[in-house]
């Protein structure tokens, strides 16, 4: 009856056990995922898109993400909660990263944080780990860098693969406990997964990574458009849309509420 820790994650890699990760942003859904046994829940800066309605993850702030992180932490018992550090809150210096990450741990109730980048954030990773904060890396397609990447596209094809492998190794060396590989060719993800002793968490990285992550609204078919790498395991969009229309029709027709859903005197 304790939370999943970085030691459990390390042990899973030793044993060759694969594990699932999902995003979560609110208490109700976080509890469902926790009770379903998802060992790691990420309060992603994808909240920018799915909660706050921004076009990219660039605008979302620490102050917008912290309350979501806290609600997910309060609603769960077993999952490790990973807080995603937003754009501009850690790139400046290791000191800035530590100040931000400490807020996610103290105010957000997270047990770990995630940040984007490889060698360029190695000093940040070292500083956080030295301070007692587990860090998950994230390389490949790093959405906070959409403006320098020039769009959302596959990363690490051809020559660029060696750079990503070097980034992954540097993150491991800096003390990261896991690394997300987003939107990279399967053979590159396989090479990185083999060469690292920490687990790789794939999203659009093929079946070879140690773990897999999806944004939960994509996984459950609530998001209107999804990338090629997303599989929808339910059709919540249709379910919710039909429930909404039925509710509206019954209100207009006067059939809801009926006696069963009303109080007697
Ligand atoms: O913000 C997010 O949802 C993420 C995952 C998709 C890895 O960073
Ligand atoms: Na993210």
UniProtKB/TrEMBL annotation:
EC number from the UniProt entry: 2.1.2.11
Enzyme class: transferase
Reaction equation(s) it catalyzes: (6R)-5,10-methylene-5,6,7,8-tetrahydrofolate + 3-methyl-2-oxobutanoate + H2O = 2-dehydropantoate + (6S)-5,6,7,8-tetrahydrofolate
Signal peptide (UniProt feature, chain positions): none
Binding residues annotated for Mg(2+), in chain numbering: 45, 84, 116
GO molecular function: 3-methyl-2-oxobutanoate hydroxymethyltransferase activity; magnesium ion binding; methyltransferase activity
Compartment(s) of residence: Cytoplasm
GO BP term (any one): methylation
UniProt pathway: Cofactor biosynthesis; (R)-pantothenate biosynthesis; (R)-pantoate from 3-methyl-2-oxobutanoate: step 1/2
Keywords: Cytoplasm, Magnesium, Metal-binding, Methyltransferase, Pantothenate biosynthesis, Transferase
Cofactor note: Binds 1 Mg(2+) ion per subunit.
Cofactor: Mg(2+)
Binding-site residues for 3-methyl-2-oxobutanoate, renumbered to this chain: 45-46, 84, 114
GO cellular component: cytoplasm
Role, per record: Catalyzes the reversible reaction in which hydroxymethyl group from 5,10-methylenetetrahydrofolate is transferred onto alpha-ketoisovalerate to form ketopantoate.
Family according to the record: Belongs to the PanB family.
Subunit: Homodecamer; pentamer of dimers.
Name used for this protein in its record: 3-methyl-2-oxobutanoate hydroxymethyltransferase
Source species taxonomy: Bacteria, Bacillati, Actinomycetota, Actinomycetes, Streptosporangiales
């Amino acid at each position: 009856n304790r939370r999943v820790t970085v030691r459990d994650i390390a042990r899973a890699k030793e044993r060759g056990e694969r594990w699932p990760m999902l995003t979560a942003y609110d208490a109700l859904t976080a509890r469902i995922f926790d009770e379903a046994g998802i060992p790691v829940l990420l309060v992603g800066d994808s909240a920018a898109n799915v909660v706050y309605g921004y076009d990219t993850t660039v605008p979302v702030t620490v102050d917008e993400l912290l309350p979501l992180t806290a609600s997910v932490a309060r609603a769960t018992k077993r999952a490790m909660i990973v807080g995603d550090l937003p754009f501009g809150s850690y790139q400046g210096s290791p000191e800035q990263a530590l100040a931000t990450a400490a807020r996610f741990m103290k105010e957000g109730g997270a047990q770990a944080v995630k940040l984007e980048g490889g060698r360029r954030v190695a000093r940040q990773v070292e500083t956080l780990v030295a301070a007692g904060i587990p860090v998950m890396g994230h390389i490949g397609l790093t959405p906070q860098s959409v403006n320098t990447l020039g769009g959302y596209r596959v990363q690490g094809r051809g020559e660029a693969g060696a750079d990503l492998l070097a980034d992954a190794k540097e993150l491991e060396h800096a003390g990261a406990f896991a690394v997300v590989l987003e939107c990279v060719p399967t053979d590159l993800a396989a090479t990185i997964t083999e060469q690292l002793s920490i687990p790789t968490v794939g999203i659009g990285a093929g079946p070879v990574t140690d773990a897999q992550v999806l944004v939960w609204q994509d996984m459950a078919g609530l998001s209107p458009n999804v990338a090629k790498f997303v599989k929808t395991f339910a059709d919540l969009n249709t379910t919710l849309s039909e429930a909404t229309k039925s509710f509206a029709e019954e209100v207009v027709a006067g059939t809801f509420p009926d006696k069963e859903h009303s109080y007697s005197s």
